[in-house]
Design a protein that fits this description.
Shape: globular
Distance between the termini: 45 Å
Largest sheet: 7 strands, parallel
Oligomer: single chain
Order of helices and strands: EHEHEEHEEHEEHEEHEHEHEHH
Mean pLDDT: 95
Number of helices: 10
Strand order of the largest sheet: 3-2-1-4-5-7-11
Radius of gyration: 19 Å
Length: 287
């Protein structure tokens, strides 16, 4: 089998490495020449891709599965716009679209699942919702994966605590859902083994949590004093960072368990941060 991965980045590479180890052939794209060279050294066949640079026909030879993590732009989904017919010709066994739980919009902290009508409140989330619909209507065996906030090696509060950039920003009642990058790969592998074209999956762990609690727990693991709590209203944040606090919801993940048989390796941030200490930090002596 051959996986063609549009946007072979942080999350997709974990899946690609697992499949490569199982004997799969991996074809991927990246806009950055240096990144392409790095991934080619790992055994992947790489191409550049964007709206101005479509893939050559040879890139689709033998492709049986496709995964895309490329965000839509204002014109739509570039993968479908440029290569829908090429993908249809591949007679794919499986297609995966990595989206976001942001399509649910603000729910005031209430729970949502895959049956909850989507109400995106941000322009970028609205583009994501439109891209989801386009994939589901594409004629391809599409599966939609709505990802929560992604963390993993190099992307944890421990990194920010060690660099002195961590902050505990508090907006009362605010929670975020998150997911370890290894668990994303587990969900994707399970879906490949049990394809259900047209299905939508929330990909998150079991415990939505206030961001300040996650930072405090990371500080405890490192044996350092957590930064003081900082009210959201007075926090210096970029306009983009502020938008993340506009939406507040708790995301359910039962479908990945009941339909795909997934057992999360990191069901909460506690297990995830502890496992990442060897990469992102070391506990204090005696811990």
């Amino acid at each position: 089998p051959t996986l063609l991965c549009f946007g072979l980045g942080y999350s997709a590479e974990v899946l690609a490495q697992r499949l490569l180890a199982r004997g799969w052939r991996i074809v991927g794209t990246s806009r950055r020449p240096e990144k392409r060279r790095q991934l080619e050294a790992k055994g992947f066949t790489m191409h550049g891709f964007d709206r101005a640079t479509p893939l050559p026909a040879a890139a689709f030879a033998g492709v049986s599965h496709v995964l895309t993590s490329i965000a839509p732009d204002e014109a739509g989904d570039p993968v479908l716009d440029l290569h829908r017919q090429d993908l249809l010709a591949c007679e794919l066994a499986w297609a995966g679209y990595l989206g976001t739980t942001a399509v649910y919009g603000d729910r005031g902290g209430a729970w949502v699942d895959e049956t909850t009508p989507i109400e995106p409140s941000l322009a970028r989330a609205d583009r994501r919702a439109r891209a989801e619909a386009a994939w589901l209507e594409s004629g391809l065996p599409a599966h939609i994966f709505r990802l929560a906030g992604i963390y993993g090696p190099g992307r944890t509060p421990c990194v920010h605590l060690k660099s002195g950039t961590a902050r505990r920003i508090v907006q009362p009642g605010q929670v975020f859902s998150r997911i370890h990058v290894e668990d994303i790969a587990t969900v994707l592998e399970a879906s490949i083994e049990r394809p259900q074209p047209g299905q939508i999956y929330n990909v998150c762990d079991d415990e939505p949590a206030p961001p300040q609690d996650v930072v405090a727990h990371a500080a405890e693991l490192l044996g350092v004093t957590p930064p003081p709590e900082l009210p959201f209203e007075s926090a210096e944040l970029s306009p983009m960072a502020r938008t993340f606090y506009r939406d507040n919801r708790r995301v359910k993940n039962e479908r990945i368990k009941t339909e795909l048989g997934v057992r999360l390796a990191f069901p909460t941030y506690r297990e995830g941060l502890l496992a990442l200490l060897a990469v992102d930090g070391q506990p204090a002596a005696g811990r």
